[in-house]
Amino acid sequence: MKTRGFDPKEIIFAATTACNLHCEHCFVNRNPIKMDIGQAVRFLRECAGSGKIERVGFSGGEPFLYMEFLVALTKETVSLDLLFDQIMTNGDWWKDEADLHDKLRTLYDAGYDGKIGLSWDEYHGQTKERMLVFIKTVKEIFGEDSINIQTVEEPASLRGAERRGNPQGNDVKVYSLPRTYPADDPRAWQSRRWFREDYCQGPGNILYVHADGNIAPCCGFANENPELFIGNIEDSWEKIMQNAAGNKMVELCFNRGLSRYRRQELKKVLRQKGQKLPGKTSDICSFCDYVCKLQ
């Protein structure tokens, strides 16, 4: 039986919406916002005190454009004896090799010992040369197994032998991810079969803190919808969990299941609105985005 229920074990801080790249497949609001460090530290302490949160990760935007945040929250995570998950980065934010080395060393010295997740695909426009320098430097500072590559559309320079992370030929694990589309994009609805229900245990069961302080229960792109917000960084752990318990989308995603909702209730809702489904989607996040926008 698949696990159900919202029971977060990790916080992901989207430290900033600022980014040095502009990728067509990215859904992040591009207005440059930075999360308040003091509020983030207080929130982390509050959640750690619940005894439920075990891990901390970082996302964005491009988190390395906000080094002060990464360093401060890394030190706090270490002091609270929590684990690190990973930092997601495009790896292309550095000015020169000295700048890259200094920033990665600063993060290492602050105590970060989690993974570095490198987004490298055709949409980013990164050069192979810069990515290999980035991978090589990460390995030198954090260790051979410290980095993985996550690619939506694998660039030619990453295929075959070029998957190797540095000129010496040490492999880097590559995760190939499907491209996702928002519900208002016709490409989201061209599947022959519906998504598999997992009660959002894959991208869910986290506290995803947006740069503006709003908190969502998952890291899927639909978490930009206000219907998925379960609180704010200024709220207590208890308040956030109370909000989650009363949130319709959390109930649908984590308990009842989006598949059941589609089969048993959605047709009636659409009929009342004079609408119909645009097709089938195999992406549960696209469907969640669709349901959010129906509310």
Q: Topology, pairings included?
A:
Elements: E1 10-14, H1 37-48, E2 55-59, H2 67-79, E3 83-89, H3 97-110, E4 115-119, H4 128-142, E5 147-151, E6 173-176, E7 204-209, E8 214-218, E9 231-232, H5 237-245, H6 248-256, H7 258-273, H8 284-294
Task: Describe what is shown at a glance.
With 295 residues, this protein is of the alpha/beta class.
What does this structure look like?
The structure is a single chain. It is globular, with a radius of gyration of 20 Å. The protein has helices at 37-48, 67-79, 97-110, 128-142, 237-245, 248-256, 258-273, 284-294; strands at 10-14, 55-59, 83-89, 115-119, 147-151, 173-176, 204-209, 214-218, 231-232. Mean pLDDT is 90; it is low at 161-169. 38% of the residues are buried. A nine-stranded mixed beta sheet has the order 6-5-4-3-2-1-7-8-9. It is α/β, with parallel strands linked by helices. Helix 1 (37-48) runs parallel beside helix 2 (67-79), helix 2 packs parallel to helix 3 and helix 3 runs parallel beside helix 4. Strand 2, helix 2 and strand 3 form a beta-alpha-beta unit. The chain starts with 9 loop residues before the first strand and ends with a helix. 34% of the residues lie in helices and 15% in strands.
